[in-house]
Amino acid sequence: MVFDRQGLVVATAQREHAQHTPQPGWVEHDPIEIWDNVRNVVGQALSAASLTDRNLAAVGITNQRETTVVWDRETGEPVYPAIVWQDTRSQALVDGVAASVGEAAIRSATGLPLATYFSATKLAWILQNVEGARERASAGQLLFGTIDTWLVWNLTGGVRGGIHVTDVTNASRTLLMDLETLDWSDSLLEVFGVPRAMLPRIRASSEVYGVASSRSQLDGVPIAGILGDQQAATFGQAAFDAGDTKATYGTGNFLLVSTGERMVRSAHGLITTVGYQLGSGPAHYALEGSVAVTGSLVQWIRDNLGLIGSAEEVEALAASVPDNGGVFIVPAFSGLFAPYWRPDARGAVFGLTHYAGRGHLARAVLEATAFQTVDVLRAAEADLGAPLGSLRVDGGMTANALLMQFQADLLGIDVVRPQVPETTSLGAAYVAGLAVGYWSSLDELRVNWREGARWAPALDRDEAAGLMNTWHKAVTRTFDWVDDDSR
Question: Could you tell me the pTM of the whole model?
Answer without folding.
Answer: 0.86
